[in-house]
C-alpha cells in the first residue's frame, strides 16, 4: 500500500478534515492494539515507525503526534504508549463523527479568534491617543454584572447610539466611534484601559467580528429585544469551564493522563 502524506493548515476544508480524521483513526484501529476498548497502545514503537507509520498514515512521527493532539487524544499511561479519547471506543465507530465535528469546530473557533486578534491590534492603535489622555482607572465605578449583560445594557441604551448601538438587523452591535467608546464606555465595563481585555471577553463568550469594514460583532444569542438569551451565553461559558474542570479531574484519576505535548 502506498504511503499517504497528511497536511493541514488554516485553509483546510471540512471535507479535508473529515478525510484526515479517517486516516488517523484507520491507523489507530488497523495497526495498534486496543486493550480495554477505551484506549489503544503502541507496543513496539520502533516497528510501528519503521513498518507501519508511513504505510497507513503519515510521513513523519511528529505529524502523527500532532494529529493525535489536534483530535483530542491524550497519553494516559506514563509507562506505556497508551492513548485515549472519550469518543474512541471499541465497537462504537459512530462516535468517530464526534471527534471529526470537534476538530471542525476548533478550526472555526481558531479562524474567528484570529479575526478578533487582528481587530484588537487595529482598534488599539486607533484609541491609543485617547487612552494616554485619560485619568487614573479608579475614577470610574464598575458593575459586577457578567460581561454579556454589561455589553447588552450598553448597546441597548439609546443615549449611546452615536458611539455603540444595535445594527439595523438587531442581531449584532456596532462600535461607531472607537475613541469615544474607549473614553466613555470601556472602563465602565472593566475599570481598565486595556483594550485587549475587551476583545478577550468577546472571544471567550463566543462573539465574532462579522463585517471587515465596521466594528461589528455578533453572537447568536445576542439579539435586540431578547435580553433573556444573554443567559444562554453566560450558561454556555459556565458549561465549557465545567467540562474543562471535569476533564482535568478525569485525567488525574486515570493515572495522570495528559494531552500530548
UniProtKB/TrEMBL annotation:
SMART domains noted in UniProt: HSF
Any Pfam family matching the protein: HSF_DNA-bind
Annotated HSF-type DNA-binding domain residues: 16-102, 143-236
Keyword DNA-binding appears in the UniProt entry: yes
One GO molecular-function entry: DNA-binding transcription factor activity
GO cellular component: nucleus
InterPro entries for the chain: HSF_DNA-bd
Organism superkingdom: Eukaryota
Gene Ontology biological-process entries: cellular response to heat; regulation of transcription by RNA polymerase II
Keywords: DNA-binding, Stress response
Family indicated by similarity: Belongs to the HSF family.
Protein name: Winged helix DNA-binding domain superfamily
Source organism of this protein record: Arabidopsis thaliana x Arabidopsis arenosa
Amino acid at each position: 500500500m502506498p504511503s499517504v502524506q497528511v497536511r493541514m493548515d488554516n485553509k483546510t476544508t471540512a471535507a479535508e478534515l473529515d478525510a484526515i480524521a479517517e486516516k488517523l483513526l484507520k491507523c489507530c484501529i488497523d495497526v495498534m492494539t486496543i486493550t480495554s476498548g477505551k484506549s489503544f497502545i503502541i507496543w513496539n514503537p520502533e516497528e510501528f515507525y519503521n513498518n507501519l507509520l508511513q504505510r497507513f498514515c503519515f510521513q513523519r512521527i511528529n505529524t502523527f503526534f500532532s494529529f493525535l493532539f489536534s483530535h483530542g487524544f491524550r497519553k494516559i499511561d506514563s509507562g506505556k504508549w497508551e492513548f485515549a479519547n472519550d469518543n474512541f471506543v471499541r465497537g462504537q465507530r459512530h462516535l468517530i463523527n464526534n471527534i471529526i465535528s470537534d476538530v471542525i469546530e476548533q478550526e472555526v473557533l481558531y479562524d474567528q479568534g484570529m479575526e478578533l486578534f487582528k481587530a484588537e491590534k487595529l482598534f488599539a492603535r486607533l484609541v491609543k491617543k485617547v487612552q494616554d489622555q485619560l485619568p487614573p482607572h479608579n475614577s470610574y465605578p464598575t458593575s459586577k454584572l457578567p460581561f454579556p449583560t454589561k455589553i447588552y445594557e450598553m448597546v441597548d441604551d439609546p443615549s449611546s447610539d452615536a458611539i455603540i448601538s444595535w445594527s439595523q438587523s438587531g442581531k449584532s452591535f456596532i462600535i461607531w466611534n472607537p475613541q469615544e467608546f474607549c473614553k466613555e464606555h470601556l472602563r465602565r465595563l472593566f475599570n481598565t484601559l486595556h483594550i485587549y481585555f475587551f476583545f478577550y471577553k468577546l472571544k471567550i463568550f463566543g462573539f465574532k467580528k462579522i463585517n471587515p469594514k465596521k466594528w461589528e460583532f455578533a453572537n447568536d444569542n445576542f439579539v435586540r429585544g431578547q435580553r433573556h438569551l444573554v443567559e444562554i451565553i453566560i450558561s454556555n461559558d459556565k458549561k465549557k469551564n465545567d467540562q474543562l474542570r471535569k476533564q482535568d479531574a478525569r485525567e488525574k484519576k486515570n493515572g495522570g493522563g495528559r494531552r500530548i505535548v
